[in-house]
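We now fix the convention by which a protein and its fold are recorded. The integers have meaning only within a learned vocabulary of local backbone shapes. A record is reproduced here so that you can trace the correspondence yourselves:
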Amino acid sequence: MVREGLVKAAKGLIRAEVKVKEGTIESIRLSGDFFLYPPESLWDLERTLIGVKVNASELKEVIRRFFEKNNIKAPFIGVEDFVKAILRGVSVEEAQNSNV
């Protein structure tokens, strides 16, 4: 089942539509009214998150490395905002099974 998580960051709303299977992200779609440079990096981030465990620290590290490696600019939006949106898109049961 796909679930949706929303986070209102300093300058934008982040929406994460997440499907989890056995504690890992099976599919994800990120959207909202925020800016990410370069723009195509949003799709690359989604692909990077496939297979990642639904765990706050692991998500944060994967996203942080992605931002650094690809020189991503996200004005007024932080790595933590993406992590929160993803985790809010995960059911309580899925989170407990994943040790979030």
User: Anything to note?
Assistant: The longest strand covers residues 12-21. The mean pLDDT is 89.
